[in-house]
From TrEMBL:
Lineage: Bacteria, Pseudomonadati, Bacteroidota, Chitinophagia, Chitinophagales
Family designation: Belongs to the UPF0102 family.
CDD domains recorded: PoNe_Nuclease (cd20736)
Gene3D superfamilies: 3.40.1350.10
Stored InterPro entries: Restrct_endonuc-II-like (IPR011335), tRNA_endonuc-like_dom_sf (IPR011856), UPF0102_YraN-like (IPR003509)
Protein name per its UniProtKB record: UPF0102 protein GCM10023184_25670
Length: 118
């Protein structure tokens, strides 16, 4: 398996723990609709969250949240629309980005950007 796949799994595990500790109910991980994917779909206090997770172990490419560009965000919105068609019981939603930066020997640093619109 490629190293980036292992890195992605490590980031997902950190993200799952992060949201569980904050009282989110995780509904789906890596939810797919065609070629579109949502990293995490969670619910908290009646609000549905579509969450993009970015994890970096090196800083040479900039902060993790910088990897969420307009195209990525538009794909997230399209996937969310498809999800809502399949699950019409949800009315309130938001888009969040969880950026996780971790040096090779350091503790992970979490930066949650809530209610994102690009």
């Amino acid at each position: 398996m490629a190293a980036h796949n292992d890195t992605g799994r490590a980031g997902e595990a950190l993200a799952l723990d992060f949201f569980r500790q904050r009282g989110y109910t995780l509904l789906h991980t890596n939810w797919r609709f065609g070629h579109l994917e949502v990293d995490l779909i969670a619910e908290r206090a009646g609000m549905l969250h579509f969450i993009e997770v970015k994890y970096r172990t090196e800083s040479q490419y900039g902060p993790p949240e910088g990897a969420v560009n307009r195209k990525k965000f538009n794909n997230l919105k399209r996937a969310a629309a498809a999800y809502l068609e399949q699950h019409p019981q949800y009315r309130d939603l938001r888009f969040d980005i969880l950026a996780i930066a971790q040096g090779l020997r350091g503790e992970p640093e979490f930066f949650l950007i809530e209610d994102v619109f690009l």
